[in-house]
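Reminder: ligand-aware prediction takes two inputs, not one.
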Amino acid sequence: MKKKVYIANSIPKYVEEYIGRSCDYEIWDGSSKITREELLKNIKDVDGLIVFGHKIDEELLNAAPKLKVVSNLSVGYDNFNIEAMKARGVIGTNTPYVLDDTVADLIFALILSSSRRVVQLDKFVRDGKWEKDIERSHFGLDVHGATLGIIGMGNIGEAVATRGKFGFGMDILYHNRSRKLQAEKELGAKYCSLEELLRNSDFIVLMTPLTEDTKELISYKEFDMMKNTAIFINGSRGKTVNEEALIDALNSNKIFAAGLDVFYKEPVDKNNPLLKMDNVVLLPHIGSATGKTRDEMAMLAAENMVKALCGEKPPTLVKEFKDIV
Ligand code: DGY
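Here is what comes back for the chain with (2R)-2,3-dihydroxypropanoic acid:
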């Protein structure tokens, strides 16, 4: 009998067909984001779940007693309760590599738009306020030749560093759990402590995964260490930053600006003070959101699912499950 998969997000038809050749499946109609309640209702008898963002915790595992594989449609897997999944013999996969360059491009969009006030000045022109030469208060900061500090030097961090080094002649600092000797050799990247990075960088890019160790890694103390001309970019997860501390840093000009693709709560609350601030560029978590990359992520998530349910090793099994497959 074929294994059964529930697909909780919309994916390209050809990816659905690929899954259908090996498994039975049902798919959420995609007209809106699936609610938690609907998700729990629809996974009662499934062996596999393809999903983005929903917490894989005791409650979900209890609702899906046959579940064996969760295939995340994202590289981040902070939605996994690893211990609970392991206790039930459920494995998890993610979608690394295929999105690295796309996310790195977006990080540079945030770097350039926040330093040169692109969004603020676009609004200025649209509002009909461009009547004479712009004032000094509208001037920005140079990106070329500046120092780029990357916290979390994984594949995406390295892709950001490559753009900074070869595209903009930037000096690269990085902070990571382990040294990246190749990046040091090829990009001249300098490994340093978090404090050294925060004190010396003009652009601080946070790319670390969200874990117990990185939750609110950047808070009041860390913003105090930054230059008052620093620009802070978050492309990881919102909870890696204390958002109140960020708001305080932007309000009190402790830093020059920020560019955010992620928020503590997503979608962001309509009354979040960040929405009223000029010195921050805000995006709705679109790091990997190009058609080509999202299609490649969907295909990789599907391959992970099919291989795992057919008893083969999935191509991108999350490292915490490596010892049980
Ligand atoms: C990921 O894949 O984790 C990204 O944040 C999604 O855009």
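The two ends are 22 Å apart (CA to CA). DSSP finds twelve helices and twelve strands in the chain. We will return to this case in the review session.
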